[in-house]
Design a protein that fits this description.
CATH architecture: Orthogonal Bundle
Largest sheet: none
Number of domains: 1
Order of helices and strands: HHHHHHHHHH
Helix content: 55-70%
Number of helices: 10
Radius of gyration: 17 Å
Oligomer: single chain
CATH superfamily: Hypothetical protein, domain 2
């Protein structure tokens, strides 16, 4: 954090607002699902869809893979997002992804693993790195 306080752009922001803290995701799968739900939507719309999804389904790979796609659509998801969410669920189930799995890999390897899932782009994979790396080590490579 000290290096940021020396940055000419960030230093005044930190002085005015204090340091930024980021809470780790309790569940990486749910964080990734939330990221996909939120893509290209307003915060209010994404929140409403996420709340409906979480209210109707347990947000686990098994539950979302066994869900009827029409029920997922009824939560407000587009057909493409239903496909992406099920792709993520399949990848987490098949590869047994977990926080410890990703912590054992380099940043590049994590990005490669996640972007191999149709529906997860580089930006989303890098946001997952924030949750994985920034919390414990206070930096991102």
């Amino acid at each position: 954090m000290e290096v940021l306080t020396r940055d000419p752009v960030l230093a005044p922001l930190i002085a005015d607002h204090g340091p930024l803290t980021i809470e780790p995701a309790d569940d990486l799968f749910e964080r990734l699902i939330s990221s996909i739900v939120s893509q290209q939507l307003s915060t209010a719309s994404a929140s409403a869809i996420h709340d409906r999804l979480a209210g109707r389904f347990e947000l686990t790979p098994a539950a979302l893979l066994s869900a009827d796609p029409d029920q997922l659509l009824n939560c407000g998801l587009s057909g493409q997002k239903v496909e992406y969410i099920q792709n993520v669920a399949r990848a987490f189930e098949t590869n047994e992804y977990s926080r410890s799995f990703f912590e054992e890999h380099s940043n590049g390897a994590v990005i490669d693993e996640l972007t191999a899932i149709t529906g997860v782009g580089v930006w989303t994979a890098k946001m997952m790195l924030v949750s994985l790396r920034c919390i414990d080590k206070n930096y991102i490579h």
